[in-house]
Automatic annotation (TrEMBL):
InterPro entries the UniProt entry points to: G6PDH_assembly_OpcA, OpcA_G6PD_C, OpcA_G6PD_N
Pfam family, one: OpcA_G6PD_assem
The species this protein was found in: Isosphaera pallida (strain ATCC 43644 / DSM 9630 / IS1B)
Residue span(s) of domain Glucose-6-phosphate dehydrogenase assembly protein OpcA N-terminal: 75-180
Record-annotated membrane-spanning stretches: none
Chain intervals for the UniProt region annotation (Disordered): 395-421
Protein name as annotated: Glucose-6-phosphate dehydrogenase subunit
Residue stretches of biased makeup (Pro residues): 402-421
Domain of life: Bacteria
Domain Glucose-6-phosphate dehydrogenase assembly protein OpcA C-terminal per the UniProt entry, residue ranges: 201-392
Length: 421
């Protein structure tokens, strides 16, 4: 892990030059703040001036970001969202001591403008010294700034998961950056871990991958067209996944279905998961059928989640969404379908059948947000996200084992889907 953060320091270069280049500078743990003050001062003095070739240095910190795993994306994140990053590495052979290095991440927004810089603090400890890391992190946090834990390993019974729980208790929020589906880690498993450790403000980055889909659907049903949502009779979501959906359905499909259910006040009555041999859908791996009641308890809504195996779909990707509703004085139901022109393509076709909506076919771009963009969207979003919490609770009931009752927290008051939702 250390090799990913650190190159050998060129002894011919001053320490502050290595620091600005992102090369790890070893420092004693108690002296980190003092050393950072010295390095920033020397760097600003050396790089100061109005010349385009030697822009001054501006240090920017928007939050504290505590990281374990996937450091190769950190520089890209810090360029877009400058922060104090505290990297945690567990390595054998380091005894009972925590070792530290510091480095800077800098970029030039435009010629002649100051360099925008933020810092990385890497802490290395052997597993037996892991207990020292939470207190070391607390001493390094920038005061009066949010503390965000970026976690990219499925929680289990290991010591690393215990470390996550300790760090999360001191954090403003936790961002789970996990594969979808995550190996040997279902949504129900994640929910139980969160409840067992009483973690607050936990967000699944799969939710932010749904932003283009939610925005496109919300646009279609903005007032006065939102009344069609009150007459919905069915919802179908087709998803490609590299995992076995019979064992671990992808979270992204459950969260999209949960968004509808949570925002429209649906109540789950029944769910049934069927293997491919029992379905009539083209090339499915499995299908989840569910029945909901609307907010008033009078109308039944049928939900179908179709999963298709695709080794290239990592993470899982939604290919189509179809809604049907009752049309007054019409023989056929109203229908709105969004479908990618081909699997994995950003372009999608929009089909509408309705007496009250524009029936002209259209198209839209639905980009598949990469993990870095999902993380940046999460960093810029509010930690209090009622639509996500409601979707998470609904997805847990939908994707969880049929014989295992879930204990969701109090859902947010139901509202109509909007662009902000």
């Amino acid at each position: 892990m250390k090799k990913e953060y650190n190159d050998m320091i060129n002894v011919n270069n001053p320490t502050h030059e290595a620091f600005l280049r992102g090369i790890g500078v070893p420092v004693e743990l108690p002296h980190i703040e003092r050393e950072l003050t010295r390095l920033w001062g020397e760097s600003a003095q050396e790089a100061g001036g109005s010349e385009v070739s030697r822009p001054s240095v501006t240090r920017v910190v928007l939050c504290n970001l505590v990281v374990l795993g996937r450091p190769e994306r950190l520089d890209e994140v810090q360029v877009a969202h400058p922060c104090r990053a505290i990297l945690l590495g567990l390595e054998e052979g380091r005894g009972q001591k925590v070792e530290a290095e510091v480095a800077a991440t800098c970029h030039l927004p435009a010629p002649g403008r100051p360099q925008v810089c933020s810092e990385k603090i890497a802490l290395f400890a052997a597993p037996e010294a892991q207990r020292l890391l939470p207190s070391a992190v607390r001493g390094l946090l920038e005061a009066d700034l949010p503390v965000v834990v970026w976690w990219s390993q499925p929680p289990d019974d290991s010591e690393r998961s215990e470390l996550l729980a300790q760090l999360a208790n001191d954090a403003s929020r936790v961002l789970l950056d996990l594969p979808d589906p995550a190996s040997d880690c279902t949504l129900e498993h994640l929910a139980r871990f969160i409840e067992a450790h009483r973690l607050r403000y936990v967000h699944d980055l799969a939710w932010f991958g749904l932003t283009p889909w939610r925005d496109l659907i919300a646009q279609r049903f903005e007032p006065p067209n939102h009344r069609h949502l009150e007459r919905l009779t069915s919802l179908t979501i087709r998803t490609r996944t590299a995992g076995d959906p019979l064992v671990n359905p992808p979270r992204i499909s459950g969260l999209l279905a949960g968004w509808f259910a949570g925002q429209l006040g649906w109540t789950l009555e029944q769910r049934l998961q069927r293997p491919a041999a029992e379905t009539h859908v083209r090339h499915p791996a499995s299908t989840i059928d569910a029945r909901y009641r609307d907010r008033a308890g009078r109308r039944v809504i049928h939900l179908t989640l179709c999963f298709e195996l695709d080794p290239q779909a990592q993470p899982a990707q939604i290919d189509a969404v179809e809604l049907e509703w009752e049309e007054p004085e019409a023989v056929v139901p109203g229908c709105y379908r969004i479908e990618r022109v081909r699997p994995g393509h950003d372009l999608a076709r929009l089909y509408v059948t309705s007496n009250n909506l524009c029936n002209l076919p259209g198209s839209a771009t639905i980009p598949e947000l990469d993990p870095t963009r999902r993380l940046l969207n999460a960093l810029q979003a509010s930690r209090n996200d009622p639509p996500f919490q409601a979707a998470w609770n609904q997805a847990r009931q939908l994707l969880g084992p049929p014989d295992t009752p879930s204990t969701p927290s109090r859902p947010a008051p139901p509202t109509e889907p909007t662009r902000q939702s």
